[in-house]
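hiii, so i know i said id send this last week but things got crazy w the move. better late than never?? heres the sequnce for the chain we talked about at the cafe, plus the structure i predicted for it. fair warning i was half asleep when i ran it
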Amino acid sequence: MSEVFSVRYLDHVEASLDFTIAYEPPDEEGWIVARVLEVPGATSQGRTRDEATENALDALQTVLTPDEELAGQARADDREHLRFTTA
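okay and structure toks below
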């Protein structure tokens, strides 16, 4: 019975994460750096704030996308699944 409840419950759950983008002032060449503060490595730049935002979001997606090549290097018994759920 608990499995049925879990499946039904998960059909109605929505999760979201909030991120903060910080912008540096334009450098001498006009580039604006945008950094997702909560995710190291999710940094990019653009000529406008909108372009910097779009590029930072692309960097965020890249950082959060699983690396299938690296995942395949670990033996199955040296890996475990982690489910991160927000409420």
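btw Confidence is low (pLDDT under 50) at residues 1-9. thought thatd interest u
miss u guys!!
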